[in-house]
Amino acid sequence: MITDESKDHTTQLNEFDNHLAKPLYRLKLVEYIYGGFLWDFWICEHPLYGKVISKIVDTFDHPCSIPDLDDNVACEDIIKQAIREQEFYNGPLLELQGEVVPRYFGIYTAGRKDQYLAMVLGFAGYSLETGVHEFNHELLSKICDAYKQIHLCGVSHWDIEDRHILVNDQRQIQLVGFRRSVRQDVTTVKGVLRLLQEAACVRGRFELHDTPLAVAGAEYWARLRNPAAFKANLDRREARRGFVPPIIRQLNARFGFKYTEDGREIRTRK
Ligand SMILES: Nc1ncnc2c1ncn2[C@@H]1O[C@H](COP(=O)(O)OP(=O)(O)OP(=O)(O)O)[C@@H](O)[C@H]1O
Ligand SMILES: [Mg+2]
Q: Which CATH architecture has domain 4-122?
């Protein structure tokens, strides 16, 4: 594993595919920023791409190599995981690179038998986990919009965590961490519902609970064969939202809860 001692050194990374045809660039490790589930994350300087993030793993001695661990990954599977993530960046998310997801520069190897793997991405800022507190309306709507953009490309992120939401000094939001992501078919009701549900989870994470699925926007169901029927179904679902069955109302009445005639809770602000 690349350690602090190597901080002032540079490391040579060979282009993973077609390396003979391309010039060799030196990537300068600048700052260690994060130890992920499998990879170590370094801010680096690339002679062509400028400030980048390099996710590096020593495939012979990595944190998930112990067979008894739940998240055990066999040495030979690491490259498969990396390629899986790459297929999202270079597949459905290609158009969003540099905007909603970082630019993606490829997978590189170094060392004998390709011992070290590195995935190089544009630097996208710092994650919300680093202590962003100011969740004003502008930032929240940018976060919801970032998820919407990946959803409209048919990708559900599947790992909504603050560490996967990055903000840069221009207050631009980019999403990372696509190793668990799933493709969804935006021409099927099942696919669209899954994406809408993830959009609702994102809103829930930021306590925007009171918003119906439909708030995500008509673009979600625009590619269905019958968008109007889908919307009518969503509205029917919505009409049922917040209904409390009579027996629960009775139980809650002794705690002072109040309900409208059609069985919805009357919330009183404290
Ligand atoms: N392009 C990037 N720019 C800046 N920081 C990044 C970038 N990609 C990843 N990071 C940093 O690395 C962290 C983990 O990224 P990612 O989720 O891709 O890796 P992971 O191996 O899945 O790690 P974990 O299991 O902890 O989620 C992010 O929270 C962020 O701090
Ligand atoms: Mg992750």
A: 2-Layer Sandwich (3.30)
